Amino acid sequence: MTSSAVVDDTGLPVDGAVLPIDGYQLKVLEGRHPIEKAHAEAIAANWQLEQRANPSLYNGELILQERISLEGRQIHARGYVADYASFLWWRKVPGRPGACHLFGYPVLVSSDGALIAVRMSDHTANPGQVYFAAGSVEPVDVVAGECDLAGNMAREVLEETGLSLSEAKTDGQLYASYRTRRLTLFQLFHFSDSADQLIARIRKHAQECGEKEISDAVAITSADLSLHRYNPAMQALLQWYFR
């Protein structure tokens, strides 16, 4: 972190700067996230708008953090179960008060140096966006009262791409990138297959699986942000990786 970096109450720089971290403790507390009750009417009204625009949306559940902090080189967070309608409302509110969103990014690296991402299908909440196969931490990812981020990343990659992270090599180093109440924790996974081979495997999986969550796979070989419609969380990561 540079001395000029702007840091908010989380202790993290707000410009997306990539920081190596040594570990995390992501507690999940009993009960529902406080924003559900505090903003119930606004959440319900927004959900009607979201469903009208995209009838395929499903109001499932995720773990939404109430607080995130960087202490030394450790990430600490506490969160609650919230429904997806609350999350979609919250991410539209300027400044995103009352919550933080934390998710894991498994960064897939091919044997020829490309980063392998997916393009989301039109019926998803992020239609057309390109990012690494990932998803919010869900109640199924909670083990003994804490978020199992490694399990979440493995599950999401397998569901969306058909690839198993157990095939890949990783040094286990975690990195954090934070911007506007949203924290990405990511890890590099190196596959022995080339970019063409990995993309062919992902496309085959996408054709065969019942739920068409992704529309295609993408090989990324530069930090040129104009090449795809990237999710905002991708920008700092690509600039860091291809620096």
- What structural class do the secondary elements suggest? alpha+beta
- On the 0 to 100 scale, the average pLDDT is 94
Q: Looking at the structure, what is the overall shape?
A: globular
- How do the SSEs run, as a string of H and E? EEHHEEHEEEEEHEEHEH
| Annotation, overall tally of beta strands | 12
Count of helical regions:
6
N- and C-termini, Cα separation = 16 Å
Question: How would you characterize the overall build of this protein?
Answer:
- With 243 residues, this protein is of the alpha+beta class.
- The protein has helices at 34-38, 40-53, 84-90, 149-161, 195-208, 232-241, and strands at 19-21, 23-32, 61-71, 74-83, 101-109, 115-120, 130-131, 142-143, 146-147, 174-179, 182-190, 214-220.
- The strands form 3 sheets. Strands 1, 5, 6, 7, 10, 11 and 12 form a 7-stranded mixed β-sheet that branches.
- β5 and β6 (115-120) form a beta hairpin.
- The chain is globular and about 50 Å long.
- The two termini are 16 Å apart.
- The mean pLDDT is 94.
- InterPro entries: NUDIX_hydrolase-like_dom_sf (IPR015797), NUDIX_hydrolase_dom (IPR000086).
- Residues 108-240 form the Nudix hydrolase domain.
- This is NUDIX domain-containing protein.
- It holds the Pfam family NUDIX.
